[in-house]
Design brief:
The chain is α/β, with parallel strands linked by helices and 363 residues long. It is built from 14 helices and 10 strands. β4, α4 and β5 form a beta-alpha-beta unit. The model has no long low-confidence stretch (mean pLDDT 95). The protein binds magnesium ion.
Length: 363
């Protein structure tokens, strides 16, 4: 999007985990003042290749670039790694375009309180939340009856649970509608992604859990809906391409002409909806349970899931064990209050250890 609207944007800084080949090409094209690479050896290698660029290293480096003064900080890290950089961006007063849902799952009240204090807008990039944000605009919070988060159902929708024991990481990562990273695609296959999005929506929109619904919509044309007290439902429709919410979040409150084409309504013959099956996809149930328990329970859920998905991707456990590891970890680790960031990071660490032990017994 920045390449397309080259005259509208200046790239202040860029961060990456370890893909320095891509980052090097982006440095040559966009000339950021500073870059950060989370993996220290990759950072060293990049610094040697790009002598004229300020290359920061490690998680501190990512936090530093998040806090560089800018109109908007697009936070699109994977998992819990995004928590501190998101907080640093807010503390620095940068508007946050948030693509990384796990920080809100872990520390929603802290992040939203920090954003209110600094008068920083958290603009959702997650397609469902981006849709809800647009549907809510101009309406009074008291008039909202509930929000409906749509879910494609992932690659295994409609298949009996018993069939899923043998699925491979490659099959799970092949999302039928959205082109996304591996972790989020596996989360979509277990429906944990939708569960995390329920918690994300609670904090982003200050919405009580009992006003958040999940509806399966396999075509992924409606990206979510808001239902009002008078029975009216507003939906957000669009092509299934993350570039739309990315561009919206970058330019909000302005809208730019789309370079991606437009949805042809006359070709939309079947937009269908169904209730999710909490028994076939228990991760969705566990996320609702964690949200209801509150405190550090969502952080425990998230940590267990990250460890389990990683183990699945490495072939250490089967697909069905992902939800088992999450359930066992939720039962073992008890939730405490969300007193501060340390309490959350402690819960995260204990849950990771517990999930890892469980996988050790299983594998
Ligand atoms: Mg989403």
């Amino acid at each position: 999007m920045i390449r397309h609207y080259r005259d509208r944007f200046e790239v202040v800084s860029l961060g990456a985990h370890s893909n320095i080949a891509l980052l090097e090409a982006q440095i040559a094209e966009f000339h950021p003042r500073r870059v950060a690479v989370a993996k220290p050896d990759a950072a060293r290698e990049l610094a040697a290749r790009c002598a004229g660029t300020d290359v920061l290293s490690g998680h501190m480096g990512l936090e530093a670039i998040a806090a560089e003064p800018a109109d908007v900080a697009m936070c699109a890290m994977v998992g819990a790694a995004g928590l501190r950089p998101v907080l640093r961006a807010i503390e620095a007063g940068n508007r946050v375009a948030l693509a990384n849902k796990e920080p809100l799952v872990m520390a929603g009240p802290l992040i939203m309180a920090a954003a209110r204090e600094r008068n920083v807008h958290v603009t959702p990039v997650d397609s469902e939340h981006n849709a809800i944000f647009q549907c809510l605009h101009g309406h009074r919070p008291d008039d909202v009856h509930c929000i409906h988060l749509t879910a494609s159902g992932g690659p295994f929708y409609g298949r009996p649970r018993a069939d899923l024991a043998q699925v491979t990481p490659e099959q799970a990562a092949r999302h039928p509608r959205w082109d996304m990273g591996v972790k989020i695609s596996v989360d979509s296959a277990t429906l944990m992604n939708k569960g995390l999005e329920v918690i994300e929506a609670m904090w982003l929109f200050g919405m009580p859990l009992d006003r958040i619904r999940v509806v399966i919509h396999p075509q992924s044309i409606i990206h979510s809906l808001v239902e009002f007290t008078d029975g009216s439902i507003l939906a957000h429709l669009g092509l299934t391409d993350m570039k739309f919410p990315i561009l919206f979040a970058l330019t909000w409150p302005e809208r730019l002409e789309t370079p991606m084409g437009r949805l042809d309504l006359t070709r939309m013959h079947d937009l269908t909806f169904a209730a999710p099956d909490f028994t076939e996809f228990p991760c969705l149930q566990y996320a609702f349970d964690a949200a209801r328990t509150g405190g550090t329970a969502p952080a425990i859920l998230n940590a267990a899931n990250e460890v389990a998905v990683d183990a699945f991707c490495k072939g250490r456990i089967g697909f069905l064990q992902i939800s088992e590891v999450v359930r066992a970890t939720m039962e073992t680790c008890s939730s405490t209050s969300l007193a501060n960031l340390d309490a959350i990071l402690d819960a995260d660490r204990l849950a990771r250890d517990s999930a890892e032990k469980r996988i050790g017994h299983t594998a």
